[in-house]
């Protein structure tokens, strides 16, 4: 048993990062542990979790488990959880209720909890006290150890908990079963050292650890060989890539290396405004296969709130960065994240956020009401704004965001754009895909065009998508 520890998770030491680069191998016994058994996995949270689930699936299949999409058919149920806001917690515990019922009729079912909530001390305490029937809990730092942990849980049948709060390692060669044949997630770094005062991620994902550039390039080259059309380079704060590496390599260098692999489309997320330098802007502008799309979280337009959030930039600096980006990359699409109702946010602070939205004219945005996370500094800040007022601000902000999103979409009518057709559309007989600028398009196209980047003329504009035909 190894329990999460908040104090440990908060620490950052100078200790060197260990790179584990051996092939990923299982014993003969582990390879057959899942024979005849089915797993069901449910993923919450961000792309990083989605990609972790792709690793988990591949590991389980190496153990001879097969995937099922029916909860009722599963012998093993895994919940890959997210801790970013309170409602993520509610969703997970809500779903556990359903599994409990199922397990009453089918006691052989093994239930596993992993992901960011598993890294939280209070969550694991609750699982130990009130959810003793949950069989195993493992964290974000030891996904590669799943076979061993699972074997212990299956043979002992008492709650098995293995969560590490130490700073972690970089582990290469974890197998992956990708959800798409055309688009791939590629981790470039793990963890985050920014410690924005509201955010749980630095505690659940540990210290910033960059993968070595050669491993990333190798992975992308391999994807090119397999016919992949797009990669998204993943990290909580990709612009800080490489700061922790011994051999110097920054995000600009890495983007250039990846661009030269010839993969048709490169995206990256998420960018923190603090580390976005001119060299990076230049490289995004220079290479045709780096997509003109940047997700640049603003969080707030008020300098006072930005300071309380620990974001390390001012409204002015943010606006200057956006202006540079738009100048160098004329076709740029820009999206953002905004939090309303941070402790102490006044009407005036909020209006500054609205002003920034008007200046930046975002293509779209994810907007959230502040949610206090246990153990973070912001959770202890005095927060007197009533929830009704916060809701009102959120609606007002969303109205403005939607106005600009609509305006941006209108500009596409009659235009010719490139779309990577990646799957069947929800609209019958059509395919769906995204433009270089990340607009969803439903296209009249034959199935044999799946996985291809095609020229599409935009024929109609809907609220959340575009319609088009192949030209
Ligand atoms: N690494 C990314 C963000 C990851 S979390 C970055 O720095 O931009 C995704 C978004 O969730 C954040 O941008 C923020 O807007 C929101 N978020 C994070 N913690 C939150 C909290 N405690 N309450 C409300 N929203 C939060
Ligand atoms: Fe959280 Fe800030 Fe790190 Fe993003 S940069 S993951 S918001 S601490
Ligand atoms: Fe959630 Fe963890 Fe991602 S908290 S947003 S799954 S890094």
A few lines on this structure:
The chain has 471 residues and is an alpha/beta fold. It is 34% helix and 21% strand.
Overview of the structural elements:
This protein is of the alpha/beta class and 471 residues long. Helix content is 34%, strand content 21%. It is globular and about 60 Å long. Residues 84-85, 198-199, 201, 236-237, 270, 272, 297, 299, 337, 339, 368, 370-371, 373 line the site of S-adenosyl-L-homocysteine.
Span of the ends, CA to CA: 60 Å
Number of strands: 21
* Count of runs of 4 or more consecutive helical residues: 14
The level 1 CATH classification of the largest domain is Alpha Beta
Strand order of the largest sheet: 3-2-4-5-6-7
Structural class: alpha/beta
CATH topology of the largest domain: pyruvate-formate lyase- activating enzyme
- Please state the CA-atom Rg, rounded to the nearest Å: 23 Å
CATH superfamily of the largest domain: tm_1862 like domain
Bound small-molecule species: S-adenosyl-L-homocysteine, iron/sulfur cluster, FE3-S4 cluster
Percent in strands: 15-25%
Average pLDDT over all residues: 96
Using the 3D structure, state the CATH architecture of the largest domain: Alpha-Beta Horseshoe
Short descriptors:
binds S-adenosyl-L-homocysteine, 21% strand, 471 residues, binds FE3-S4 cluster, five-stranded mixed β-barrel, 21 strands, alpha/beta, 14 helices, six-stranded parallel beta sheet, binds iron/sulfur cluster, pyruvate-formate lyase- activating enzyme, Rossmann fold, OB fold (Dihydrolipoamide Acetyltransferase, E2P)
